[in-house]
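Workshop exercise sheet. Pairs work together: one partner reads the sequence aloud, the other fills in the structure field after running the prediction. Swap roles for the next sheet.
Pair: D.N. / O.F.
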Amino acid sequence: MIRLHIVYQWKSDEITAGFFKFWDSLKKDSGLQITLFDIEQYDLKDISKADVIIFSNVIHRKSLMIVEEAARAGISTIYDSRVSRVEGLSIDKLTNESINDLRSINITDRLIRRVDLVTSDSNRMSKSYPACSTYLKIIRSDDLSGWKSLLSGLKPASSSERQESGKKIFVIAPTLMWPHHYICDMLTSSLMSMGHNVHLFTVRPTKFLSEAICWKKEFDRKFLEYVSFHQEDAWKILPLIDRESPDLIFTVQGYTIPRQILQEIKNTGKPFAAWLMDEPYDSARSISFSRYFTHVFIQDRASLKYHRHFGNPNTFYLPHGCMSDPLASTTRKYKRDIALLGNPFPRRVKLVEYLASKGLNVTVAGSAWNKTLKEPKNIQIIDNIPLDTTAEFFRETRILLNMHRSSDDFTTNKNAFNPESPNGTLFYIAASAGFQLVDSGRDELKEFFEQGKEIVTFDSENDCYKKIMHYLSHESERDKIRLAGHKRALQSNTYINRLEEMLSVIEKEKPLPLDSGHRRIGFISTSNELPDAGKLSDSHCYTLISDAESESNIWDNVKVLLPDKSRGFASGINAAIFETPADYFVVGQYDCGDAALFERMADWFEDDMNLGLILIMSEGNCSGFIIPQRMLDEIGTLQYANADMCLTDLKNRIIESGFGVREIFCKDKPISECNFSLEASEKETARFQREWT
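Structure field:
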């Protein structure tokens, strides 16, 4: 008698009733001992009690562990991909569409590569998952004899003998970074469609990183639910890499991975690549991260030499791309004439207001437009649109405006490079067969699309207005250009094209050996004075929060940050901590102080893991503090614009979390005298009193 375990996941009464009915019919006179299990209740100890395990449309991570254990025990496994129908309802409609989420699709893809057999009602699975085409069985939902024959002749597990044609790629998502999380999902989907075995790891950002760089409010609520279900702690990355033994580890940006984990991944010796997609605006920040990777790719050529000199010499140029839009060729049903999608950078605001003053109705989509436009006459504002749904917005618009950022728009880089490469919007609009008017400021536009035939550029606000008026009344000419641009995008500008180029570079370009620059102690100075060059040590790094003019580039391990004084103390310190590559942070109103003393203090944290903070006191005032990165990961970012309140709050939160605080005395200026600490407002005072009095 064959002992058969049926593992299912669906919570619908309709599906469950029909599902049980089929297996009950098979059980009669078949010589099968059938037991049904909900995936969440299935214990790994139950595996030994089965001869065959069938996963019925399961998309749960636990199923991967069950398959691995079954393979070690010589127990056969089947992925049953039949989507049952009960009174016109299908499984995917009864499970909140989670089966269509990329993370669920990725688990399915990984699971069917491990099982011995995949069963289906049709050839749909072989088309969706090429890896399973050679071990797919077509069995109708009502074919009892076919199932009996299959189960009686099934051989023991053989998944380990299967030869994969693609690479094993471990992708770490930049969880809830906007819009990089969506872009990474598109890249993951592209890698899977290329036939690679992809393990998508959705890292759970630490509390500090979650508060500092993750924009949850920008994401769709349902998307947040999917992501939260799949999030895993960063410490799991190393054991999984060891178990999976991938050919390549890949991420976008890399900011949501703690630096300690980045260093440990680098120490594995495996190819570790990152695609940095905010260049050159983010280059002052990104170079300190780039040193952890064997290969770095940036989407703008302007900062390539800068990265190779100050960051990672193994840096390569890789422009933006796009995903194909399956509905791009459908008949257009326009809802608006003119639209611009993106953040309200000053140049964009100026252009939109100019066009509106000419009597044109313009739609803008993106966060912060409501706050930026005071009197939006003739301007319709749409809230932020998820990146995976922008194609519909593009298809519904006759003319799409694509205005690039200025070189100094919201940049961390004081070098203010002149950007050369086009933004991702250029390719996304073309992929959806949209007609776009693009500003002519980027030199490389001509390398991707032919001006006048595949896209149309404009040189000024007046030129843009004239071309809008022309193309609104020349629909056939507009259609000819947008379709030509669409064809060009699919021929040579998809993310598959870019990823093929990336994998080729990684294969050919062996990385130069590079120290990650992961220094133990980072000194963050709140004064306007640069540290004495003679005191600098290669074992330390320095970040100066200052509005004073300085020539900090003469030292590689000194960074100067310009504080946003309107946001106050916590904002400046959080930014400095995020951009300082260190395990311990020394914050205060001094240059570099007694470095040997601070080295000894760092030892105190390692001798006493319960120690969370050291306050540096001077004549009754706090002149600074020392805190380990692990402590910030635990409690999160600093919170108050006023320095005194911020430090009191920091101390109290650490004590409340069960960690110790130690005080030392060192004569120095009070940290509250720094030039970006704000006077406590009534609102902040009230908040502080609610928290701590």
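Discussion prompt: Residues 182 and 621 are 46 Å apart (CA to CA). What would you look at next?
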